[in-house]
Amino acid sequence: MLDLEVIPERSLGCPEKSWEFILGMHFSQAVAIIQSQVGTIKNVQVLYSDQNLLNVDLIINIPLSGMRLIFDPISQRLKAIEIFNMKLVRLRYCGNYFNSPEILPSIEQIENSFGSTHPAVYDAVKNSFALNFRGLTFYFFVDSKTQPNQANHGLSSLHFGPGNSPIVTRMTLYCGNSFHECKAPALPISCYNKQLYVESATVIRNSSGTKGLRLNIFTEGSVRSLEARKQCFTRDVLFGDTCQDVVTNLGAPSRVFYKSEDKMKIHSPSAHKRVQRKSDFFFNYFTLGIDILFDARTQKAKKFILHTNFPGHYNFNIYHRCEFKIELNPDKTEQLNGNPINVTAYSKWDAISAKFPSESPIVLHRSSSTNCSNIFGSTFCYGYQDIIFEVMNNGHIASVTFYNTSSQNVFSNWAGIGNQQQINKHNEFEIKIN
């Protein structure tokens, strides 16, 4: 049974073991905590809507601990924590228990632990009432022995006889005054972990194609005072930049991955030639949602891959979402009015492809290095100018690849889309699709 400390409007966690679920933390950070507590937190489920990814909350369900972590579907940051079975967890506030096998969370116990608050809100339809504190709500079930008293307004506005005090059935923790109006807060500085995060990414393009990326980045500033502060800056990463240029602008990558095999070389005119050469390599920036491919010979950047991190994709939870914006300028032969097309991480392929012609896609199927099947199925890769769009079955864009046409054969650019290091993050989770 988990033994957790409640901090309204902030977190729920176990200070003795130095972990806590903090409101505003990214989905991947919560998963990392769960994986670190693999012997304690078990039977984890990821719940999402496959056809309505941007409007339905992303949820980590932990039924054996009676807990749900609710994430905003767009920012993918933690916006609320729900305890739906109070009997499966111990809870304390300021070091004092208010819920455990020995202590029932009655309305008197909640009042003694948290103090006075506004009158309870009675719901006659659900036959329940809610007791609201800032950042915290307790829900009670009203049975035949507990009747609302219309004459009083306060904690005692519900009248109950001796031994019939209502017990908390559910608790929610969030930021703000109301659970129904709560939003995921900004990523707390305590969750920065000395990493870089992208606020927005603009693709730099002109009439001849893509030149590079302009990244608006934030991170933890230098600690010259007692309080760490957010620091923002802008960096450009361009085709032809060397490894040293990229590291100077973005810092060391999360990982470096060397390509071992190019399975798309069969499309090249010289595919039959066995040429021994060094391996191209990727800089993986997981918290930026970006991969950068470097040429093995020149060690200069020749490909950028931007990830959207949608649930239902093979690489989900490896990257943070890259908040990119692309402005495409179709040729007049493709579109008579020549109006630019704006593409973001939330655009759907049907809306994009309707504005310019596209050829039949290449089907991309990934499989785990442990010979496990890919439960999410194949994705489809569409080429346009110097861009490759990887599209999921539900029409959402999984990744966008930009390649330098001046240095590569077009066929070789279909290889290496997505996470270049085949890491299956789902093997400890049960995935449920609504």
UniProtKB/TrEMBL annotation:
It comes from the Eukaryota. GO terms for cellular component: trans-Golgi network. GO terms for biological process: Golgi to plasma membrane protein transport. InterPro entries: PHAF1 (IPR005373), PHAF1/BROMI (IPR039156). Belongs to the PHAF1 family. This is Uncharacterized protein. The lineage of its organism: Eukaryota, Metazoa, Ecdysozoa, Arthropoda, Hexapoda.
